[in-house]
Here is the input.
Amino acid sequence: MLETRAIVVQIDGQHALVQANQGNGCGQCNGKGCGTGKLSQLFCSKPRQFQVDNPINASVGDEVIVSVMDGAVLRGIGLVYLLPLALLVAGAMLGSLSAAQAVQRDGFAAAGAVIGLIGGFVLSRWIASRQNRQQNRPYIARLWREDM
Here is the structure.
């Protein structure tokens, strides 16, 4: 289960708007890490807020632990990035193979790639609309305590 600390900013029924405290890399940025945190600070300077489920009825100002079920992030990445990319490559290959003359291969490959990419985005949106979103949503697991 992936977890991070956050502060509850706003409550809206059974949902809460939280602002994550972390998110600037893996924690090695102060030492001899890869510097990903510095890169994220460069491009993401403003604090990010997310809407999450609030099953524990946390209040505004509470510091909480936000969790996401195992595999939810990986499934989302596969659906949003890998499926369209795979269809882009498949479309380019099919377009290239369907060209009657060698001169036409690049144009057909480009057209096939665009069609595959658009088809990938449409297909991933359709698949996402059919999935059970409740199990993939982040939620507030518990209040955060210093002695944890």
In short: The mean pLDDT is 82.
